[in-house]
Design the sequence.
């Protein structure tokens, strides 16, 4: 493990952030009901019980994206990760979970580990995931069948592998935004926010 | 032999003993010459030898004892052997006896075994015989049973046969009765036959008569027959036509029924369609309602906004009126604002340029001021120098005057002295006086020079003091001039410029505040866009995997939709085919949706009705044909329907086709009938 007891290196920070995204995306999919609840299994992480999918195709897709994201986090070329939830009937974007990533590029040059305890980072991640779970109370119900997509905002000049293609930002028409908590590993800072389509209540 | 051997051994041992005994003597004798040595040694050696001999003797004796014991043992052995042999012999004899006995016993056993075997065999044979007998018995029993059963069956058969014979007898009787009746009938028929034969004979006679008379009539009769055949065919055809007409008459009813059924079907379909249409309409109306309600809400919001905008418009118009400018549209306002802004910009630029020029001028001035001071100081110094030099010049001039005067005086004195010299000898005194005068002169000159130097020094000091004073005065004058200039400036800057500058400052402050507000708003917008997910396309790009769950779900949806459309199209085609045919035919296309039970029931009913119709038609046809033939045969007249209520009767014996009777019948209570035509 590159996360030594002494401090956090760039590689260790990238692994921590990628791990957070893996569990965070699974929690969002479970909470919003994109996939049936019986396809999820309970695991323990960050001293709390989280839901992880058992669907093989979904697992394969997530591991592909997260592994590529880890590389880009190590290169400090990724700016945002967005989970887009689309309604299948109307092809409208209903929700956008956006995670802004600020990378301290001096860590890339120096290579010296930074002093921040892993427990503090895990505490911060725990609070973010709890907040994600709590947002379900005020988000509008997803009544129709929905599907999700993962978008990554990167530097313009970055070379992407063949399986990745450019896409639009898939913004929501008439949205309400809520800013959530953030956490930092002293090399990467992750800000979370959720945007949802305004419902015209009768 | 052993004894001999023992003897030999004894002899041998004795011999050896003797020899031994003799040997030591020899040895002793041999050793006698060796008396040269000591007697003790000889004694010792003799003792040793004697001991050795004793030992040998002992050994020999032991040997002899052993041999003797051995011989005794051997003897005993032999005795034992002999006894053993005797015993062995006896035992052998016993053995042989026993063997013989055994053999005998064995023989007996064998005999017994043979007997046993034979007995067993006999037993087995007897058992087998018994078994066979039993089987035979059983078989016989079975056979007896079978025979009994057969007998019983035979009895049954006999009884049955008896019954049958009875029945047959009965049948025979019945048949005999039938036979008798038939015989009677036969007789009757024969009688009839006879009668007919007679008739036939009569007829044949007639026929022969006819034949004889009418040869041509036969041809005509043949023709008649042919015509009759044609007539018959035509009548059959007419019958068929009439049947067809009846069918046709019935067909409208069937068609009516079919039409009714079709109408009902169409009505039901229409009702179904209407139902579906009504449902769609209701759904559409509901959606419209929802849209209308949304539109109403939006309209309310829009009206509110419109009021707000109207207020704002009025405010803007008021502003236009209040400012007094020629403002009718916000465009004019914007134009004027732009113009004012441009003016402000220009003024600002001018202000800045002026300020910069002022500062540069001030800088140059401040730079030039010391130079000016320096120049003034220099000028003053030079003035002083000039004054000094003027004073010097004056002094020098004064000196020159003095010197000239002195010279003149001295010249005069000299001249006087010269004049006086000629007169007297006053020259040494004069010379002394002259010297004293010259000394006095020199002293005076030195005193003068000293005084002049002191004067010059004093004048220089005074000059320096004057310079300093002038410097100070110059500085004072400069300061005064500055103050004067400031005061002049303050006095020069009028209230208008001050006010204008104050206005400019206020406007600039207001602009700054506005710019700060705009900056805050823009930052808020940026933040909001950032939250919504906007990005700078120059620096960032958005990527995602091609095979992502949303695209896969969309593909699946489109495929489902296409499949549903294809199915709908097929169903529509099927429906069209069914409606075009009007009859439930077997489907050429594959059945996607199974037909409902009602339709199946209706199809079955239709088929059964059609079958019934067909059967009824056939039956009616047959019956009609039979009836008509029966009528024709029995009555001798063929009844045909030409027109409604008109009936034509043709006789069997009619000579021509046209010979028929036409009747008209009206079915009333009394049943009138009229004869219309009569043709022969």
Sequence:
């Amino acid at each position: 493990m590159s996360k030594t007891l002494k401090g956090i290196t760039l590689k260790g920070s990238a692994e921590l952030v990628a791990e957070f995204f893996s569990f965070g995306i699974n929690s969002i999919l479970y909470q919003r009901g994109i996939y049936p609840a019986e396809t999820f299994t309970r695991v323990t992480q960050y001293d709390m019980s989280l839901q992880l999918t058992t669907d093989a195709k979904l697992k394969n897709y997530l591991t592909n994206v997260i592994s590529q994201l880890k590389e880009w986090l190590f290169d400090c070329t990724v700016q945002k990760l967005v989970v887009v939830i689309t309604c299948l009937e109307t092809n409208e974007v209903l929700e956008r979970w956006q995670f802004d990533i600020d990378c301290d590029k001096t860590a890339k040059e120096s290579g010296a580990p930074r002093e921040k305890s892993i427990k503090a980072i895990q505490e911060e991640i725990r609070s973010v995931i709890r907040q994600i779970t709590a947002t379900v109370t005020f988000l509008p119900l997803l009544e129709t069948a929905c599907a999700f997509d993962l978008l990554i905002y990167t530097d313009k000049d970055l070379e992407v592998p063949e399986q990745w293609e450019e896409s639009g930002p898939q913004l929501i028409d008439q949205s309400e935004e809520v800013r959530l908590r953030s956490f930092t590993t002293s090399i990467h800072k992750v800000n979370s926010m959720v945007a949802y389509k305004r419902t015209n209540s009768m | 032999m052993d004894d001999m051997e023992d003897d030999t051994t004894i002899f041998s041992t004795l011999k050896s003993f003797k020899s031994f005994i003799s040997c030591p003597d020899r040895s002793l004798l041999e050793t006698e010459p060796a008396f040269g040595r000591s007697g003790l040694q000889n004694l010792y050696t003799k003792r040793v030898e004697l001991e050795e001999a004793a030992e040998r003797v002992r050994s020999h004796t032991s040997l002899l004892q052993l041999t003797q014991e051995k011989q005794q043992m051997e003897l005993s052995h032999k005795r034992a052997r002999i006894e053993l042999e005797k015993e062995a012999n006896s035992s052998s004899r016993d053995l042989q006896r026993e063997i013989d006995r055994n053999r005998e016993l064995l023989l007996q056993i064998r005999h017994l075994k043979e007997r046993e075997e034979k007995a067993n065999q006999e037993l087995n044979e007897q058992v087998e015989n018994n078994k066979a007998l039993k089987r035979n018995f059983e078989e016989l029993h079975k056979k007896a049973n079978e025979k009994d059963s057969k007998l019983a069956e035979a009895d049954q058969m006999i009884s049955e046969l008896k019954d049958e014979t009875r029945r047959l007898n009965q049948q025979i009787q019945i048949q005999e009765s039938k036979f008798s009746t038939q015989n009677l009938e036969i007789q009757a028929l024969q009688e009839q036959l006879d009668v007919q034969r007679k008739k036939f004979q009569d007829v044949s006679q007639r026929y022969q008569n006819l034949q004889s008379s009418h040869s041509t009539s036969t041809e005509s009769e043949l023709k008649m027959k042919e015509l009759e055949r044609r007539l018959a065919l035509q009548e059959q055809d007419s019958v068929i036509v009439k049947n067809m007409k009846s069918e046709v008459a019935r067909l409208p009813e069937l068609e009516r029924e079919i039409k009714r059924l079709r109408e009902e079907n169409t009505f039901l379909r229409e009702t179904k369609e209407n139902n579906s249409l009504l449902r769609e309409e209701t759904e559409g109306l509901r959606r419209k309602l929802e849209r209308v309600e949304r539109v109403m809400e939006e309209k309310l919001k829009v009206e509110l906004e419109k009021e707000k905008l109207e207020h704002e418009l009025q405010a803007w118009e008021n502003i236009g009126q209040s400012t007094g400018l020629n403002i009718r549209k916000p465009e004019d306002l914007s134009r004027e604002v732009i113009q004012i802004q441009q003016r402000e910009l220009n003024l600002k630029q001018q202000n800045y340029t002026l300020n910069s020029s002022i500062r540069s001028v001030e800088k140059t001035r401040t730079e030039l001021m010391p130079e000016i001071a320096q120049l003034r100081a220099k000028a003053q110094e030079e003035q002083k120098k000039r004054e000094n030099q003027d004073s010097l010049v004056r002094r020098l001039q004064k000196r020159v005057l003095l010197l000239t005067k002195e010279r003149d005086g001295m010249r005069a004195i000299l001249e006087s002295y010269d004049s006086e010299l000629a007169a007297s000898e006053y020259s040494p005194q004069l010379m002394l006086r002259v010297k004293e005068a010259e000394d006095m002169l020199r002293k005076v000159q030195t005193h003068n020079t000293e005084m002049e130097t002191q004067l010059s020094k004093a004048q220089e000091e005074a000059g320096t003091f004057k310079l300093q004073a002038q410097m100070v005065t110059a500085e004072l004058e400069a300061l005064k001039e500055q103050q004067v200039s400031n005061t002049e400036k303050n006095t020069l800057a009028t209230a208008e410029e001050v006010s204008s500058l104050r206005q400019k400052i206020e406007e600039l402050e207001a602009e700054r505040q506005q710019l700060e507000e705009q900056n805050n708003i823009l930052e808020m917008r940026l933040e909001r866009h950032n939250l919504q997910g906007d990005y700078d396309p120059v620096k960032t790009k958005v990527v995602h995997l091609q095979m992502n769950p949303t695209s896969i779900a969309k593909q699946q949806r489109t495929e489902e939709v296409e499949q549903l459309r294809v199915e709908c199209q097929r169903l529509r085609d099927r429906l069209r085919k069914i409606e075009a045919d009007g009859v439930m035919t077997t489907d050429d296309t594959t059945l996607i949706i199974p037909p409902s039970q009602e339709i199946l029931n209706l199809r079955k009913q239709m088929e059964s009705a059609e079958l019934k119709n067909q059967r009824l038609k056939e039956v009616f046809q047959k019956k009609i044909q039979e009836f008509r033939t029966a009528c024709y045969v029995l009555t001798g007249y063929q009844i045909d329907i030409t027109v409604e209520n008109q009936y034509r009767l043709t006789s069997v014996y009619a000579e021509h086709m046209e010979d028929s009777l036409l009747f008209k019948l009206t079915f009333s209570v009394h049943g009138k009938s009229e004869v219309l035509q009569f043709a022969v």
